[in-house]
DNA sequence: GTGAAAGCGCTAACAA
DNA sequence: TTGTTAGCGCTTTCAC
């Protein structure tokens, strides 16, 4: 492992000159530059980023905390965040919270230890105050931590209304929604909006809850089973994509025709909604934009470029599939 | 940002003593320890990992390169790798190659720049020699780089045979397989084994290829369409999970009954195989074990614990779904 | 038991 | 234009 000193010695110049040549900062005469280039090539010198990090007091790494990397929404989110960070010269560290608050806390602590320059969090199991303790750059996706941490999210309220309108157009009379349970998250708004819109129009709405940190297929399957047994007469279901798919399979298993007997509407519109048959109608979150906005908001904090918007809410739209009767208006 | 110096001053001791106290290395009297603890608490001191990294010349970070984070197999793989690395005190940096060899190369270069202590790669688009240039710890998943880089993978050959046997038990006469195109990867063996086993038994096997770096659903959909038009009379398809699901939808769209008219067998057995209806029969790769073995093989290299096995091949098994007639033997 | 000092590899200010 | 030097914050000898 050749160091900058070795290069300097080999080229017969001082370390400062080598540094300036390498980083194209300050003057270096063509002649010395040539000597340095030769020495670099000969010794196969690569700057040690660890030393640079210490000097600059930054790592160039951003931590991304998600509840479960193996959930299609989050894997897509992390993918898009990585693409955006890469474009801006940052690296992505992934943090799977998997519902364990200790893990979330430990990853959050990386801020103080200078392992990451900032954090984008989409996880919800750690107490909000633990986040507020940190002064370092943080961006929250979908969870409201109050005025100190900028939040980026989708317009869940509009999404809930859109889903409700679809149910109305399908002529449904008694629908059910599956909610996650977690306070202060935007996702809650979609269920409130969904329920209100429907009840205002005389539709009965039942609600089932599910732990927001459990994402294995088994749980969705069980929940779907429970729901269909408990509510055999419902004619519409609104849930996250995976829950909706599980319910769809269960409904069909019980001999229901889709979408004649029951409307199914997912939220997120992850790729699985296209893979199932019929394709699942779903409210789409704009993951690409979600990633872009959260990354730029975080980097603006890190690089102190400009004022930070506290709350950025993105539009959602409907992806029409075959699980609702209504098509595009 | 309090430094160790501030703590030393506050506690009225030397920095060396503080370091020893913090790390529990060397002697520190109970009295001084107390003073130090108090100073640490008062100043809210947290050690700067950047400085430690420089001294130790390691970052505690492992890079994981995958073709596409948003593919269910890789998101599951990365998730499991992260869990294993976390247990061993390492952090995970994700690298989405997305089929761009420059990105793969740039991430690989992080080894020389000491940004990561090692790399686990599941990507295939960069030339093998670029990998061999590095002397640092690397583990390859599924791709054979020759004797210098340890390889961990599934027994694709056995998987191909298992799939072939299922086709035989289903009484198929003309099947098709979808292969990725990439040299030196273990996945190729499964198609050779599949083809040989079937042809030895008088079954005709057609092969279609697909770019191994393209994973968007659109491409699978198009490929499925092309295949069904080109080969309207096939009665069996063997492909990666997503390709098989796409073909299943297409087959049904053309009025075929499943599994009466056609058998579909996936490879990987990712979660989507359970979500679709009927569930897709698939050869399962043991992702948990794949992650565990590749992580331990990498850490053994990093920490120079013991001799490294060059080639570790893991068993696969069949996940029976409703897309084949044959059930468990 | 503890403090002083050297050094990890780099950058930037300063002097030449 | 270039070399020297002082840190960045930490760990670790090595005297005391």
Q: What are the SSEs and their pairings?
A:
Two copies of one chain form a homodimer.
Chain A lengths: L3 H8 L3 H9 L6 H14 L5 H8 L4 E6 L5 H16 L3 E6 L4 H9 L8 E4 L6 H5 L5 E4 L9 E4 L1 H14 L4 E8 L5 H14 L3 E8 L5 H14 L5 E3 L2 H13 L9 E6 L3 H4 L5 E4 L2 H16 L8 E4 L2 E3 L10
Parallel strand pairs in A: 1-2, 1-3, 3-4, 4-5, 5-11, 6-7, 6-8, 8-9, 9-10
Antiparallel strand pairs in A: 10-12
Helix pairs in contact in A: 1-2, 1-3, 5-13, 8-9, 10-11
Chain B binds a DNA duplex (16 and 16 nucleotides) through helix 1, helix 2 and helix 4.
Going across the biggest sheet of chain A, name each strand in turn: 2-1-3-4-5-11
**What overall form of chain A do the CA principal axes indicate?**
elongated
The biggest beta sheet of chain A is recorded as: 6 strands, parallel
User: Total number of helical segments of chain A?
Assistant: 13
CATH architecture of the largest domain in chain A: 3-Layer(aba) Sandwich
Quaternary state of this entry equals: homodimer
Percentage of residues in strands of chain A: 15-25%
Question: Residue ranges of chain A: pLDDT <50 for 5 or more in a row?
Answer: none
